[in-house]
Amino acid sequence: MSVLLKKIKINIYSQFKRNLSNNQYKIRRALLYVPGDDPKKINKAYKLDVDCIALDCEDGVAANRKEQARNTIFEFLNNGKPKKSREFDWGVRINSVKSELCQNDLDVILTAQNLPDTISLPKVNDTEELKWFSSQLERFTALKTKISVILFIETAQGIMNLKEICTTAKKLSENRNFEPVALVFGGDDYLADIGARKTDQLTEVLYARQKLVMMAKAFQLQAIDVVYIQYKDLDGLKQQSIEGANMGYTGKQVIHPDQVPVVQEAFLPSEKQIKWAKDLIEAYHKYAASGKGAFNFNGIMVDSPTLKQAENLIKFVEVVGKDTNQ
Ligand SMILES: CC(C)(COP(=O)(O)OP(=O)(O)OC[C@H]1O[C@@H](n2cnc3c(N)ncnc32)[C@H](O)[C@@H]1OP(=O)(O)O)[C@@H](O)C(=O)NCCC(=O)NCCSC(=O)C[C@](C)(O)C(=O)O
Ligand SMILES: [Mg+2]
Fold first, then answer.
1. Taking a C-beta distance cutoff of 8 angstroms, is the pair 267, 245 a contact?
2. Is 93 annotated as a binding residue?
3. Which residues bind substrate (predicted)?
4. DSSP H or E stretch at residue 72
5. Residues of the chain by 3-state class (helix, strand, coil), percent to 5
6. Which numbered ligand comes closest to the C-alpha of 33?
7. Is 187 in the pocket of ligand 1 (CB under 6 A)?
8. Shortest-distance atom of ligand 1 to CA 35
9. pLDDT of amino acid 24
10. What is the second-level CATH architecture of the domain 23-266?
11. Is residue 49 among the annotated active site residues?
12. Torsional sign, CA 131, 134, 138, 144
């Protein structure tokens, strides 16, 4: 961790401690998919410094390998969460409700000796699917603690029904054994669903990409951005990651080990941004004490929305520092 980051951690920690402890924020900058039928890749993923792993039963696994995938994941779950130098999210992506594989996946995954931290539920279209999923979870009465759930929105129906999906997820979680923690934008499936043609700028999915991040924030969920499938092009990945971070996304899906450090770095604010935020917060409180709500800060007008942006940035740095020792 840099000297500046350490200093900020000491100065700002107490200020935000209350907010952070309320929702047990877990950092999810890179969400790495690992095909569930491939033990070699799972072992490799266990050795990586990655925020979030999703052992995959869904699209990373061929249709004739589904059973192999869930049985392999079952064995890895039974062996326990691997020890790493820092906390990470140990998750499983099951198949969608509509696929009719979902129940079989849950029957296997949720009867393992150790449960994953998180279940990723792909292709959520409407609240009925969510209710069905929730009732399936209820069958596992051994679930003593709430399991975290990541909801994938990757169809036109899902984007259209997003507000109702988030409302229902929050409502159901009040007295059920799961907790929605994030929304994922499944850009590739969404493109296919609406019959769009993919461009480098992703203008064809801009509305959905923005709607998802807006809705995530409205419901205090993390927002996880599209996957970058040109996995050998790390410059392009960096550019798209920064774009997602600028839009308000808190993380990005990845498919290859080489993508992990690029994405995790891109979702960290730069030292320049951290200094800007720290100076702005100090200046804001100085001006506020003298009765000024808006003031000139290095040539720009600053008032309370800008303060909130600076506070968001510092809060994020604080959480990253706590979870990753960076
Ligand atoms: C792209 C592929 C085929 C290139 O596979 P490769 O074997 O040619 O790669 P490599 O460069 O040779 O691999 C180097 C090393 O990394 C390992 N490795 C490689 N990948 C992984 C991985 N993911 N996790 C852990 N380890 C991995 C690999 O085993 C090898 O290990 P080694 O050096 O020890 O021999 C391969 O990386 C892969 O299978 N990735 C995962 C693909 C996947 O899960 N796709 C589905 C998720 S995206 C999605 O669902 C869409 C979305 C969101 O739903 C929507 O937008 O709609
Ligand atoms: Mg998908």
1. yes
2. yes
3. 93, 154
4. helix 66-78
5. 55, 15, 30
6. 1
7. yes
8. 44
9. 55
10. Alpha-Beta Barrel (3.20)
11. no
12. negative
pLDDT attached to residue 320: 76
pLDDT digits (tens, 9 = 90+) for 34-76: 999 999 999 999 999 999 999 999 999 999 999 999 999 999 9
For tokens 């990470």, what's the residue? 88
The atom of ligand 1 lying closest to the CA of 231 is 1
Is position 70 annotated in a ligand binding site?
no
Atom of ligand 1 nearest to the CA of 190: 57
Going by their DSSP bridges, the two strands 300-302 and 295-297 should be labelled as antiparallel
* Buried residues in 121-144 as b, exposed as e (16+ CB within 10 A): bbbbbbbebbeebbebbeeeeeee
Q: Whose CA is nearest to atom 8 of ligand 1?
A: 256
Q: How confident is the model at residue 143 (pLDDT cuts 50, 70, 90)?
A: low
Domain with CATH 3.20.20.60 in the chain: 23-266
Residue closest via CA to ligand 1's atom 21 equals: 256
The continuous run of DSSP H or E covering 42 comes out as helix 39-47
Predicted TM-score (pTM) of this structure:
0.90
